[in-house]
Amino acid sequence: MRIVLVGPPGAGKGTQAAYLAKNLQIPHISTGDLFRANISKGTPLGVEAKSYMDAGNLVPDSVTIGMAEDRMNQDDASGGFLLDGFPRNLGQAQALDDYLKAKGLTLDAVLDLEVPEDEVVKRIAGRRICRNDSSHVFHAEYNKPKSEGVCDACGGELYQRDDDREETVRKRLEVYHTETEPIIDYYKAQDLVVTIPALGKVEEVTQRSMAALQRDA
To answer: What is the CA radius of gyration of the chain?
Structure first.
């Protein structure tokens, strides 16, 4: 299957993508991983992306599209893939269509993880990260530490990242509504969108997604 996963920040796309890719036995292709891999390997696209990032500029769509196409061309993606974070805007969606059409392929589904905006803000703004180890993540409401402000695992100080502050989250949501949401209508016109309510436990959302994909197959 060839699937695109979309949803606002805080919808749990990365978590769901990992579970779905494992269940469907297809590679999970995330934009973040693509950038990290290309930059660490020093590929021409990675070098170009880093030059923009170091200058504090946005990486052009052409670079992101190039990285995505290179990854989709790899052998493990020949039987399908799950795209997470790409396409991010209409230009990228159209480029993906062109890429697939040239290969005689099509998308099977676009999963739209639906989360109320207030819940998104609550999820992200409530995160607290350990200063000693960023893999230790807590939440002010959903996963409280035993002692406020102290990491259960190592005793380090818990803090709120600037990116997780409410005003920043709301700005990220504005960008999502402006740039990414239009691709949902674009794919609805192709009858590809399956809306998944993304509230509840991780496994419940995964089950809804798998059930929707099986009905759509």
So the answer is: 18
Q: Could you report the per-residue pLDDT of 22-37, keeping only the tens digit for each?
A: 999 999 999 999 999 9
* Structure tokens belonging to residue 180: 């990414």
**Distance separating alpha carbons of residues 106 and 168, to the nearest angstrom:** 36
Please report how many Cα atoms fall inside a 13 Å half-sphere around the Cα of residue 135, on the Cβ side.
2
Which is nearest to 103 in space by CA: 61, 64, 69, 67? 69
Q: DSSP class of residue 177? A: I
Spatial separation of the C-alpha atoms in residues 72 and 83, rounded to whole Å:
9
Nearest one of 81, 84, 106 to 26, comparing CA atoms: 81
What span, in angstroms and rounded, lies between the C-alpha atoms of 143 and 134?
15
Positions in the chain whose pLDDT score sits under 70: 216-217
pTM, two decimals, is: 0.89
Catalytic residues: 13, 88, 127, 161, 172
Count CA atoms within 13 Å of residue 91 on its CB side: 8
Burial string for 108-131 (b: 16+ CB within 10 Å, else e) reads ebbbbbebeeeebbbbbbbbbbbe
Tokens of 156: 């380090």
Calpha distance 102→152 (Å, rounded): 52
